[in-house]
Amino acid sequence: MVLKALLIDDEQPNLDNLQALLEMYCPQVKICGTALNAQDATRLLYIHQPDLMFLDIQMPGQNGFDLLRSLPAYHFEVIFVTAYDQYAIQALRFSAIDYLLKPVAIEELQAAVERAHRQHHQKEQNKLLQNLMHFLKADPKLDEPRIALATAKETRFVKTSEIIRCESSNNYTTFYLTGSETLLVCKPIYSYNDLLGACGFIRCHQSHLVNKMYIKSWKKEFGDFLLLTDGSQVPISRRNREELKRLLRF
Q1: Considering the domain boundaries, does residue 134 fall inside one?
Q2: What range defines the domain where residue 160 resides?
Q3: End-to-end CA gap in the chain
Q4: Are residues 120 and 12 in the same domain?
Q5: Tens-digit pLDDT profile for the chain (250 aa)?
Q6: I need a surface site. Which of 44, 141, 150, 212 has the fewest CB within 10 A?
Q7: Considering the entire predicted model, what is its pTM?
Q8: How far is Cα 19 from Cα 4, in angstroms, rounded to an integer?
Q9: Are the beta carbons of 207 and 199 closer than 8 angstroms?
């Protein structure tokens, strides 16, 4: 399992050095972004939804602790990286997986990354177990199926009947819900094929899953696409066209 990581430090040479060390000695880490201040870091958090953050503490404006305080919640691991060891107690209070002093030692960096990797894996297993227990406890006569969707802020348990459609973008999937709400999840759309297929969802395109109950019509103007009750239009690929006709029974 590869950890997506953000690197936050107000000095570019420090970012360059840490990035070089990670690329050379920590192959289980994939760097998805870097930032020189807390404001840019917050924007990148919502774009990339990382698994791990290497966070400098002493920065102009918002420091590292201020950045974490400003978030409603965070589900990534944190490794503080700083030149000042007097921040250690505060770092521990923020439940950092580790604390590295500059200049960063290779052995300490590798050990911190390994601990973060184990911690993240355990959290993922706990999410899966939580979802499993929900389904095992549900009364199929009374409860609608729910799916656990892990975003950057939280893990939401969403009724499948509240999902209008899903749209893929590389390794991310956007869930469009009733009430005009969207959830961005860091999983590819094929991860949901079997689970949602059993709940009445149809794969009409490589990048789209739609809930049958929200299909309004099949349009044939300028190519085939489905018109959904929320007004969205979803393309139908040639590859999925005949199977879609069969599932919709026409």
Answers
A1: no
A2: 146-248
A3: 43
A4: yes
A5: 789 999 999 999 999 999 999 999 999 999 999 999 999 999 999 888 898 999 998 888 888 888 988 887 777 888 989 887 766 656 555 555 678 888 999 999 999 999 888 887 777 666 655 665 555 555 555 456 778 888 877 778 888 899 999 999 887 899 999 999 999 988 888 888 878 887 889 999 989 999 999 999 998 877 788 999 999 999 998 888 888 878 787 6
A6: 141
A7: 0.53
A8: 13
A9: no
